[in-house]
Amino acid sequence: MLRVADHFERSDTGRARRENEDSFYARSPMFAVADGMGGAQAGEVASKAAADSFDRDLPEGPPERFLRETIEEANRRIHTKAQDDRELDAWIAAHLTTSAHLCGSARLGQADDPDAVVDPDCRVIGVDALRVVDAAVIPHVPRSNTNVAVTALAERIAERW
């Protein structure tokens, strides 16, 4: 006997996301899972639109035509939604924020380097009693979280001070 889990969409949350954004439709005899496409908000929106397409009365007879037409309509709706700049702009304004820590915006170098902002001890060149000890003096984005690199840098500069 073959049994389908009640909530199969919750079985694989993936490594890069805290929650699974796959959407599903379940009403006997139909069960459909729409993949959320890798943890992106757009995937969640597309997944929900696709699953919602199945929420209508099932016709009598073989399901192949119904499934094909439903999937094609869902794809059209998702494509139209993706092309609407106003909706996209509103979503971006409501949901996106920066999570980047800028690195390399205050070049570290010798006092005679015209492009340097701080010296090797993180003292601001040309300004007395001011140091910049943050990600701005790190020339390349570290592979780890920037707070780890900045903490190590701050401890090193504190030892020199």
In terms of DSSP E residues, the strand content is: 5-15%
Low-confidence stretches: 1-15
Question: In sequence order, what are the helices and strands, one letter per element?
Answer: EEHHHH
| Number of alpha- plus pi-helical segments | 4
Secondary structural class: mainly alpha
> Can you summarize the main beta sheet?
2 strands, antiparallel
Distance between the amino and carboxyl termini = 73 Å
What's the short version?
The protein is mainly α and 161 residues long. It has two domains: 8-95, no CATH class; 100-161, no CATH class.
Structure description:
The chain has 161 residues and is mostly helical. The chain has two domains: 8-95, no CATH class; 100-161, no CATH class. Helices cover 36% and strands 6% of the residues. The protein has four helices and two strands; from the N terminus they run E-E-H-H-H-H. The protein has helices at residues 41-52, 64-83, 85-95, 146-160; strands at residues 23-27, 30-34. A two-stranded antiparallel ribbon has the order 1-2. Helix 1 (41-52) runs antiparallel to helix 2. It is rod-shaped and about 80 Å long. Residues 1-15 have low confidence and may be disordered.
